[in-house]
């Protein structure tokens, strides 16, 4: 299983980080988690096979996580020759179908009939849904917006957790316990802490409770990048740590999930 952080930024414009987007690849699955502004073009810049994406799953409906969905859907039809013919499945929390309908109202009927099979599947909070290759996508309700969820991807003996946007939540740490990788948001320094986002201190606390093989951080607002993030996290969490950038990746070795 390979994890690539395509976009590690936020709604704050950054010269080096586009908005949220994460690619998980294993077997025949190419799962894009979130699709914020700039993600489609960043995939091209990184040499990622954006036409080969098989599933798109979104964590919540803020624009820095969904605003490139119309761009990607249109790119699959008009952005390459030959155009896409393979089906795409869009997954998300309750309300995702309504979001897609509202986007189609804004951008046009072509979003409902893009020229390739498009299905939308909502995943109830706390449930698992099957992916190809005996893999599963799990959800956990997190404190950010009404619909916000974290995802787990389980395949073989490997489990990866992506928090999406979230405030600190002990239950999330317990749900993530023992996974191979946690990709966690790390939005703001403690001096600017707000409900619904995490500080480096809280990321460290999450890691200390969940004890992943690797804690990777993403979703950085510019002020938090002025902090000594690794040192602050290290006061709480003593395990391996990565500060993700656009294009950072890690490989999770598992012969049953390749």
Kindly describe this structure.
It is a single chain. The protein has 258 residues and is α/β, with parallel strands linked by helices. The protein has a seven-stranded mixed β-sheet. The radius of gyration is 17 Å and the shape is globular. The mean pLDDT is 96. The chain is built from seven helices and 14 strands. The chain has a single domain, classed as Metallo-beta-lactamase, Chain A, CATH 3.60.15.10. Helix 5 (170-176) crosses helix 6. Helix content is 22%, strand content 27%.
Keywords:
alpha/beta; 22% helix; 7 helices; 258 residues; 27% strand; globular; Metallo-beta-lactamase, Chain A; seven-stranded mixed β-sheet
Give the structure's gist in a few sentences.
The chain is built from 7 helices and 14 strands. It is an alpha/beta fold.
Topology (SSEs and partners):
Layout: E1 2-7, E2 21-26, E3 29-33, H1 39-45, E4 55-57, H2 63-66, H3 69-78, E5 88-92, H4 96-107, E6 118-122, E7 128-131, E8 135-141, E9 149-155, E10 158-162, H5 170-176, E11 181-185, H6 200-210, E12 214-218, H7 229-234, E13 241-243, E14 248-251
Parallel strand pairs: 3-4, 4-5, 5-6, 10-11, 11-12, 12-13
Antiparallel strand pairs: 1-2, 1-14, 2-3, 7-8, 8-9, 9-10
